[in-house]
Amino acid sequence: MKLGRLNHIGVATPSIADSIAHYRETMGATDIVEPFDLPEQGVKVCFVNTPTDSGMNGTQIELIEPLGEGSAIRGFLEKNPLGGQHHVCFEVEDIAAAREWFEGKGKRILGPTRIGAHGTPIFFVHPKDMMGQLTEIMETPKGAH
Predict the structure, then answer these.
(1) What is the mean pLDDT of residues 20-41?
(2) Which CATH number fits domain 6-139: 3.10.180.10, 3.20.20.70, 3.20.20.370, 3.65.10.10?
(3) If you ran DSSP here, which 8-state letter would residue 70 be given?
(4) Quick check: 55 pLDDT over 80?
(5) Is 136 one of the annotated active-site residues of the chain?
(6) ∠ CA(138), CA(118), CA(13), 5° rounding?
(7) What positions does the domain VOC occupy (predicted)?
(8) What is the Cα–Cα distance from 82 to 100, expressed in whole angstroms?
(9) 62, 65, 91, 136: which is the annotated catalytic residue?
(10) For 55-80, what is the mean pLDDT?
(11) How far, in Å, are 45, 97, 130, 136, 138 from residue 105 at the CA level?
């Protein structure tokens, strides 16, 4: 298993609209993807794209807002009402091999491998096994970079 690039940093927010305004007005962001719902994960998602000098894809900020009462993000926001960093996401070439590798290292995987916001397979590794940081592992999107 080889760790790939940092794809995005997930930021939980009580309001994607307010967060978009913040990134535009305070941070000068101009490349913001229109928010969309991921009902199977119980979230509304929006990506703020960061620029790079090399022409490659920059790291994204993934804004995540609860969608529905059963959203896992809702619990995070109850503890952190202003929102905040929720997870980091790294790319891997082969999601099945990565999952096997993490499990072989005794790391706890949270739930099944599923399709994430980028349309590729993902899984999450428990924060207690990752130095306190919820970590998303994502198969590199085809044709990326």
Answers:
(1) 93
(2) 3.10.180.10
(3) T
(4) no
(5) yes
(6) 95
(7) 5-140
(8) 36
(9) 136
(10) 89
(11) 31, 12, 11, 16, 18
